[in-house]
Write a structure and sequence with these properties.
The chain contains no helices and 3 strands. It is mainly beta. It has a 3-stranded antiparallel β-sheet, with no helix packed on it. 5% of the residues are buried.
Length: 65
């Protein structure tokens, strides 16, 4: 039996930098500003995504970050 102590693995959530403001997107169809709906975290190797919506055209767009 081994007497060596191993510390438990600690996971920590990596948040985007505070200096990284939410970018403003313009709708491709009407040109109006899109509303930032939220951020989806990176999961299983996929990149994190920011989701936007144009309420005028009812179009949803996302950008990776």
């Amino acid at each position: 039996m081994s007497t060596e102590f191993t510390a438990p693995l600690r996971l920590r959530r990596i948040a985007p930098p505070l200096a990284d403001p939410v970018p403003h997107l313009a709708c491709d169809q009407c040109g109006s500003d899109m509303t930032h709906l939220g951020d989806l975290p990176a999961v299983l190797g996929a990149a994190a995504v920011r989701v936007f919506r144009c309420y005028s055209c009812n179009i949803i767009a996302s950008i990776g970050w």
